[in-house]
Amino acid sequence: MDTTLATFEKDVITASTLAPVLVDFWAPWCGPCKTLGPMLEKLEAEAGGKWKLVKVNVDENQELAAHFQVRSIPHVMAFADGRPVDQFVGVLPEGQLREFIERLVPQGADAARLEAQAALAEGRRDEAYEALQAALAIDPGFDEARLDRIEMLLDDNRIDEARNEVDLLSPKTTQGIDARFNAIKTRLDAVDAAADLPPTDALEAHVASHPEDLEARFDLASAFIARRKYAGALEHLLAIVQTDRTFRDDIGRKTMLSVFDLAAHQPELVAQWRRKLSAALN
Question: Which residue of the set 21, 33, 104, 135 is catalytic?
């Protein structure tokens, strides 16, 4: 497929989070490009979706070529996880070209996790679960895949299964500073807390009449987190930060950071409340 400056982020940066993307900078007048291009197209067809080819006509997209410092073509740049990871200039023999691509394409558990991410992006949740299970069968210590599975289980309200998966995480994740795990723990703690709390409307009424009751505010924030109503949770957590940073060892700020990770799919919301938190801390 062809891309332009306007579509490059979607076609390359975002797409490379699901599978490697090779960007072929070329031009119609370039003789070697006419040799390399068909080879890349042939290998992409053979790969069956394991990687993606994107072409940039440098004559029509000089800004892109300049941004990536393309001075000679053909110039192929490989992207993975949203960033450039390798490149070459000129025409490689097919054998070397295959080796270049094989170094980029995930294998084993990594490949299965990418399959799960692609299935989830297309709404095929059962297939995503199966692919994650395959990844964990290959590598039981693959915490990133297990965290993916835990997040899916929580989203599907399969709380007990999520807890069982948490028990299988390695100490390096559960005892280290892992933002994803901390966010998941915050969500599970909120679910546990919410089970023993009064109804949300009763908590809201209490906080409205007793705004200085930080314990009640935190309870209300927990209830909102358990229901994935992150804006409501952030409102009360920020109030805690603004009132008393020492309350429960700065739990308002720490929990806000975890909620930012939980609400990563709502970037505008996160950006808004990050600014508010930053203002409160200054």
Answer: 33
